[in-house]
């Protein structure tokens, strides 16, 4: 199976989160160094004042400056407490889990599909991002990867999760699975796929594209599947012969190559529009409004 990376949004966000954490650690270290410099200066002043008080025969002043100098020496002996970066935060852990899930799905497909298949990662259009788009003889599959553990309940476009701790104890019931816009995983991939398919059918009118959500976490389980709007599978139980490979062959090798090229062009078009100065200015105006 050929793999093509159109963009790596998850990897980019993960790198930015790590850089922010490292910058925070660097800031703490810089603060500590500034304090140490101030302490060295205070130590030098205390010693100078102690010597002056000694020559002036001011015993209590000598004792006071001596104690201050001793305290500054003790503070200077302290090691830097925040040289290393702290533990990853929640957002960084989420991005890391997402990247792990996408890698697991890509490895799973790569081990089971032949050279006639192509996996495109990071396709993006105005409706959102599709983690992976699989193109092959039986059609096009838009894959949303969810790397979350727990019992997943899918009732139409409403997705919830019952979460367990590492010992199997139920700790949260009915947690809503949705993006910042309130869209469930099914709606996310469904809406983005609809716009992607509209573009593809301008050149390939008979093309079919099936949106699906893959639960990539080994402890994820589909507990309820009632009128799901998209295909939902668990990676650990995903049988390609029952889904991807069960469909009739509808695309020739040349048509597969055409679909891949159309997807690359569409993604590049929308990326250029997002990066254009006019579009950025429009986004700033929308934010101010």
What does this molecule look like?
A hairpin with a 2-residue loop joins β3 and β4 (139-146). It is built from 6 helices and 10 strands. Strands 1-2-3-4-8-10 form a 6-stranded mixed sheet, with helices on both faces. A 4-stranded mixed sheet has the order 7-6-5-9, with no helix packed on it. The model is unreliable at 283-289 (pLDDT under 50). Helices cover 48% and strands 23% of the residues. It has helices at 9-55, 59-77, 90-112, 185-200, 253-275, 277-288; strands at 2-5, 118-125, 128-136, 139-146, 150-155, 158-164, 170-176, 209-215, 220-226, 231-234. With 289 residues, it is of the alpha/beta class. The chain starts with a strand and ends with a helix. It folds into 2 domains: 12-77, no CATH class; 90-288, Trna Endonuclease, Chain: A, domain 1, CATH 3.40.1350.
